[in-house]
Amino acid sequence: MFFLSTDLGIEKSIFIKPKTFHLTVLMLKLWNKDRIEAAAEVLQSVSPKVIDALESRPVSIRLKGLECMKGSPAKARVVYAPVEVIGGEDRLLRACPFLEVITNAFIEAGLVLENDLNQKLKLHATTMNARHRKSKKGSKKVDSFDARKIFGQYGSEDWGEYLIPEAHLSQRFVFDDDGYYHCCASIPFPEEMQLD
């Protein structure tokens, strides 16, 4: 169990809800229907290249440990679980050139947030984010939190192995009936080993 302490700036609202837990590749600007359709077309167009890069095999990952996106645990803004590929082959990392092709296609289409234009691909699962903090009337919104105790107890925790079934183009702030982000488009990853 994580620590809840308003003295440390840690409160329930900064934790990512289990229903919306996901791996982030990059953030897109999808503020209207045309941009959403363009992003969906970009994702669909690169599907065969991604499947080839994954050698038509399933993608399994392990989430292990915690890291800060920027800064230090004493003044954390975003805490995430880094992604490790299971099997030692690092097929997901070999697929990164194709993920970079996806990223570049989104950039060329003008769909990427300015903050992400020059950032290196960092697959991660955000667990805590100070931007999600719900401020109370009359109180100043705190933009960081002290995560040192969390890192002390959970910094090397093995969060488990997961099969990744698809790449999902999610629309922020819009949710489907199941509570997860609205799916604008998706491309499936192989579910089982394909034999030649």
TrEMBL record:
<dbReference type="GO" id="GO:0005634">
    <property type="term" value="C:nucleus"/>
</dbReference>
<dbReference type="GO" id="GO:0006307">
    <property type="term" value="P:DNA alkylation repair"/>
</dbReference>
<dbReference type="Pfam" id="PF10469">
    <property type="entry name" value="AKAP7_NLS"/>
</dbReference>
<protein>
    <recommendedName>
        <fullName>A-kinase anchor protein 7-like phosphoesterase domain-containing protein</fullName>
    </recommendedName>
</protein>
<dbReference type="InterPro" id="IPR009210">
    <property type="entry name" value="ASCC1"/>
</dbReference>
<dbReference type="InterPro" id="IPR019510">
    <property type="entry name" value="AKAP7-like_phosphoesterase"/>
</dbReference>
<feature type="domain" description="A-kinase anchor protein 7-like phosphoesterase">
    <location>
        <begin position="6"/>
        <end position="189"/>
    </location>
</feature>
<dbReference type="GO" id="GO:0006355">
    <property type="term" value="P:regulation of DNA-templated transcription"/>
</dbReference>
